[in-house]
Write a structure and sequence with these properties.
The complex is a heterodimer. Chain A is mainly beta. Chain A has a domain at 97-349: Porin, CATH 2.40.160. In chain A, 2% of the residues lie in helices and 56% in strands. Chain A contains one helix and 16 strands. A 16-stranded antiparallel β-barrel of chain A has the order 1-2-3-4-5-6-7-8-9-10-11-12-13-14-15-16. Chain A is globular. Chain B folds into two domains: 34-194, Rossmann fold, CATH 3.40.50.1980; 197-313, 3-Layer(aba) Sandwich (Rossmann fold), CATH 3.40.50.1980. In chain B, strand 7 (257-260), helix 9 (267-276) and strand 8 (279-282) form a beta-alpha-beta unit. Chain B has helices at 6-23, 41-51, 74-80, 98-104, 153-170, 175-200, 216-222, 240-253, 267-276, 296-313, and strands at 34-38, 55-59, 85-88, 117-119, 207-210, 225-229, 257-260, 279-282. Chain B contains ten helices and eight strands. In chain B, helix 2 (41-51) packs across helix 5, helix 5 packs antiparallel against helix 6 and helix 6 runs parallel beside helix 10 (296-313). Chain B is α/β, with parallel strands linked by helices. The chains are: A mainly beta, B alpha/beta. Chains A and B meet through strand 6, strand 7, strand 8 and strand 9 of A and helix 1, helix 3, helix 4, helix 5 and helix 6 of B.
Chain lengths: 364, 315
């Protein structure tokens, strides 16, 4: 029976709730720290982009904390077998006026979908072919810069968000800054709508522009060599709320267009156009198993007439939400430049992913 | 060959954003009501009890949804960005989805530590706070204690008191209104609890098995004895070995009731029930789990009626 007045909660219960997984008072002011191990094994034949038979592909250390009443910070440091890389390290100002969200630091650019996703959160062991061919490979557009985003006016029930980003201009082999003013810019527009409580549609359009390295070492001024990238993405998700942990379905496709200034074989200035896409689907069969498939097709950024094709199928087993075991079959019909012909690649990849500590949720 | 000034484009883009912000300022609440968002429907029900017609209340999660696994959809951002107050369960129940929603909401009022951020767990009696070393060998354990604390009417009252104080702090002119609403809620809840306790009194000490560790506060308040779980560890799906052990335990202790939350698959509980002669009952952990559970009172009305019915048929 309830007493006459509500009994106050015991003193030890009035602990300060922290943003993340502090487990004792001694850790209250420390950041949430996590490590995600990503072990990959590869078997089969691939003479174009061979990977190691066995490798601890990446160990991502994450540190996330609230800095002060106005900002939070996230840092993700990636330890590979050949070095250390700050994958992301940025501060987010969460309390700006006019609904603005400002991020400053090194971050994955808001260019499409897959570019924003960390390796361990990918639906496949690898990234799509088009990422490797047109958008900088595994690291993608990942650079030091400033990002400003805002919700935009939209019809009721529609979510519209615009993001504008400025980067130093050095991103993998996509952008290269030769001078201080060679910054790159990224713009992203996201449109989202719930189609019901279980289904939603997510659309996006992105643009990126920066200098490339094609003019370095030539008689031309490197400052005149630019790369323009365009992307359109569409995702449809289905996850029934009453059985969310057992069944879900996702279909996603992204289209990429590249316009890259470079020198032609005749040593004249040209803009090389290339197009690529991927489409993938994932289905959660039950609480522990997920099936997926992906189709890849992409031209090469420097040679738009050479188009690689591929497909993958993947099976994921979840012992718990903190580990995954995956097997992926990957086929590729890839351009073999040294032999001047296309060749086939057939590979089986397997992956063990494991999470230690409190790794904060990534944006949806 | 082109000679493009990227700086000009960047400045133009940033200027466009600034212009948009000026042209489309955030809308203010037309009716001057406090806009309250909650993580779960139970907290929404309590906030509505106290806030009455001075607030608009909406929950992110639905009552039939597992509150551990809510998708952080952008549509929630549209709601959170206009919230004056965000009430969360805390104890890391929402750790997988709420933090990015809060930080991306662009709403300074509800950021962690801001006046509009209200952690209801700070007002409740929390059970199962782990002692000693906490590791994930124990499954998805909550290091700060079991977060399903709202399923004890005494905690409902404590949370309501906290909400009353918070609303009064935010709207001092309406403090008397909120106090009157709280007094009414307290009186009605005490009366209802007397009835619930009387209804459950014949079943005091009855042993039950539950799927997940969702019911410690409920069991403690109503005198039930939870002796096992369908999950081998919190958040870990049932394994054959654990299921066999659980069946043995239930036969040995004559456990005849398996309580399952609405978002879990019934296949394993039904198999266990067939083997042990027990009965599976789906209880609702939250308001809105069924259409008729429209408030905090009806949540207990529903669960207690279901439990009584099950106990009576499994004597």
């Amino acid at each position: 029976m309830l007493s006459n007045s509500p009994a106050p909660a015991p003193a030890q219960l009035a602990q300060t709730q922290t943003y993340g997984g502090a487990t004792s008072n001694a850790k209250l002011l420390n950041p949430d720290i996590s490590l995600i191990g990503d072990f990959i094994g590869t078997a089969g034949r691939n003479t174009i982009s061979p990977s190691r038979s066995l490798e601890l592909h990446e160990s991502e250390v994450g540190m996330q904390a609230i800095i002060d009443p106005y900002a939070r910070a996230d840092a993700f440091i990636s330890f590979g077998e050949e070095g250390v890389n700050v994958e992301e390290g940025y501060v987010t100002f969460t309390s700006l006026p006019a609904g603005l969200l400002l991020k400053v630091g090194k971050m994955r650019a808001e260019f499409g979908k897959v570019n924003t996703i960390h390796n361990h959160a990918l639906p496949f062991i690898d990234r799509p072919l088009v990422t490797n061919n047109l958008v900088g490979g595994e690291d993608g557009i990942d650079d030091a810069g400033i990002s400003l985003s805002r919700f935009l006016p939209a019809p009721k029930e529609w979510f519209l968000q615009g993001t504008a980003q400025v980067y130093r201009g050095d991103s993998s082999d996509v952008f290269a800054a030769h001078r201080r003013q060679d910054v790159s810019v990224v713009g992203h527009l996201r449109v989202y709508r719930d189609l019901g409580e279980s289904t939603n549609l997510d659309l996006g359009a992105s643009y990126a522009r920066g200098h490339n390295g094609a003019g370095v070492g030539t008689t031309f001024d490197p400052a005149n060599f630019l790369t323009n990238l365009y992307s359109a993405d569409a995702t449809i998700r289905w996850k029934p709320l009453r059985r969310a942990m057992y069944h879900s379905f996702l279909f996603r496709t992204e289209l990429f267009w590249s316009a890259r200034d470079q020198l032609s074989p005749l040593n004249t200035f040209q803009t090389q156009h290339a197009f690529g896409l991927y489409s993938d689907a994932e289905y959660r069969v039950n609480r522990r198993w997920t099936l997926g498939g992906r189709f890849d097709r992409s031209a090469r950024a420097a040679v738009g007439s050479l188009t690689d094709t591929g497909f993958s199928s993947i099976l994921t087993y979840w012992p718990s939400e903190f580990s995954q075991i995956r097997g992926q079959y990957r086929y590729g019909h890839l351009w073999d430049a040294p032999n001047d012909r296309f060749t086939n690649a057939n590979e089986f990849l397997f992956q063990f992913l494991f999470v230690m500590g409190a790794h904060g949720a990534h944006p949806f | 060959m082109r000679n493009v000034s990227i700086e000009t484009r960047v400045l133009a883009l940033l200027a466009a954003f600034a212009l948009l912000s000026a042209v489309f300022p955030r809308p203010a609440s037309a009716d001057n009501k406090l806009n309250v968002m909650t993580a779960t429907t139970d907290l929404a029900a309590l906030a509505q009890e106290i806030g009455g017609d001075k607030v608009t209340v909406e929950s992110v999660a639905r009552g039939y949804q597992d509150p551990h696994f809510v998708e952080a959809k952008p549509s929630f951002l549209l709601k959170l960005r206009h919230a004056d107050l965000l009430i969360i369960v805390g104890l890391e129940l929402e750790i997988g989805w709420l933090p990015p929603l809060i930080s991306q909401s662009t709403n300074p009022k509800i950021q962690v530590g801001a006046p509009g951020y209200f952690d209801a767990s700070r007002f409740a009696k929390i059970l199962e706070i782990p002692t000693g070393v906490v590791t994930r060998a124990e499954g998805d354990v909550h290091p700060l204690g079991n977060p399903h604390y709202w399923l004890d009417p005494e905690n409902g009252l404590r949370i309501a008191k906290g909400i009353q104080n918070k609303l009064s702090e935010m709207r001092p002119n309406d403090a008397a209104y909120f106090a009157q609403r709280y007094d009414s809620f307290e009186q009605r809840l005490k009366q209802a609890d007397e009835k619930w306790l009387a209804e459950m009194q014949p079943y005091t000490g009855r042993k039950i098995v539950t799927y997940h560790r969702s019911w410690p506060n409920f069991a403690e308040h109503f005198g039930l004895n939870v002796v096992g779980y369908v999950e081998p560890r919190p958040g870990i799906p049932p394994s054959p070995q654990h299921t066999v052990e659980l069946i043995g335990l239930m036969k040995r202790d004559s456990v005849k009731v398996i309580v399952v939350e609405p978002y879990f698959d019934l296949k394993t509980p039904n198999a266990i029930a067939r083997d042990t002669g027990a009965q599976v009952v789906v209880l609702m952990p939250s308001v809105g789990g069924e259409k008729e559970i429209t408030d905090y009172f009806k949540l207990f009305d529903y669960d207690i009626a279901k439990l009584k019915q099950t106990f009576d048929t499994t004597k």
